[in-house]
Amino acid sequence: MGLIETYFATIAVIFVFIGIARGYAKELSTTVIILVAIFLLDVIDSRLNPLLLSVVHTVFPNFDTASPAADLLLCSLYSLLFISAVFANYSGNSLNLGGKQAGPPVGTYISGLVGLMNGYFFAGSLWFYQDLYHYPLKFFGQGIQQPLSPTALAIVELLPQKLTANAGYLMIPIALILLLRARG
Amino acid sequence: MLNQPESLISLFIYFVFLGLIGAHRGWKKEIFVFLAAFGSYFGLLKLQSRLAFLINTGGNYAISGFPSDKDGLLSVFEAPPLISEANRETFIFLVWAVILIALYFVGDRIFKKDASKSKSLGFMAGIANGILYLSLIATRLFPIFDSETALADAPPGTQLQEIVARLQLFLDVQMTVFFATFSAEERRIFLMFALFAIIGIAAYSLFGGRKSQAQKK
Q1: What is the per-residue burial (b if ≥16 Cβ within 10 Å, else e) of B79-111?
Q2: What is the pLDDT of residues A41-64, one digit of tens each?
Q3: Which end of chain A is more exposed for a tag (fewer CB within 10 A), N or C?
Q4: CB contact (8 A) between residue A151 and residue B207
Q5: CB distance A100–B212 less than 8 Å?
Q6: B216 lies in some domain
Q7: What is the pLDDT of residues A160-170, one digit of tens each?
Q8: Which domain, by its residues, includes B192?
């Protein structure tokens, strides 16, 4: 495994532990928030990018909108927005879906699985923005080891934003949760 | 290599660990898991060709769209098998692993509050399970750690690093095999199915069955 897979796999594993500690009743609400955040950012980025870059170019006339600096700016912006949305759910008043969690050991396994899924969504989304903006951390001379390994290249095709042709499909799991919530 | 005292100590730790788990869980649950796991493994080995035939025929019948005409039925039997001779052992082991995990849950349901009865019997039953796992599971872990340089001979303090490196290599090989086996579209469908399954199971477990606490209020 290359460096980038190890980075993001580590993040996903940390989410497994968080999931087990918090329980899947709370983690499922985080799933909803993460999916909504992915959906919203996917909807706005193509519309916001030209506007944002033209504003920056107006303020800083020397700013090249096709430079790695522009990639870094956009990548940082979307990553920060995404991290903020997820962090707000963890630290603030998270969505209360209610319901009764299964006891251990079944409940613990489900919590671990939901944590792993959230880890995939979270780490996968951060990786997606790195990939979309051509791994801009190389701007600092650090960055991700290039070229990516064959495994990493295959994983890139499975990132959350690339899983469905349209980000609208990500609303299906939320609909499933809400339907079961209404039935419960 | 068999005269190394460290191996004896390691084996002792392994059996004590499994024995303590057995003492904590109770002897009935442990014996149940032992007998059922042992029996199911040999049952699967005995029935593997019939099981593979059923799955191959049933699977190809479903894939062909449940044909009822002669040509359609012939094509079912002529289609390449889903479980070939080459991957039959993997399939049998996978089925057994699922049964083994399920046995722990089934045992917990059947033998409730059994742990306090006899700690020593539970300890011994745990060791019996340890021997079973040693023969069926531990032997399959050897290829991961088997290489020209023996782990035990690695300089002190570097063994953990070596283990992590070998696990990483093993996972990388497994991932490469996984990606080579399935097309990009199949991998995407597989992942989506897994995500939907996790969300479905978690949501159903929270809100399904009896009325949830939130609804009762």
Answers
A1: eebebeeeeeeebbeebbeebbeebbeebbeeb
A2: 888 887 888 888 888 888 877 777
A3: N
A4: no
A5: yes
A6: no
A7: 888 887 777 88
A8: 147-209
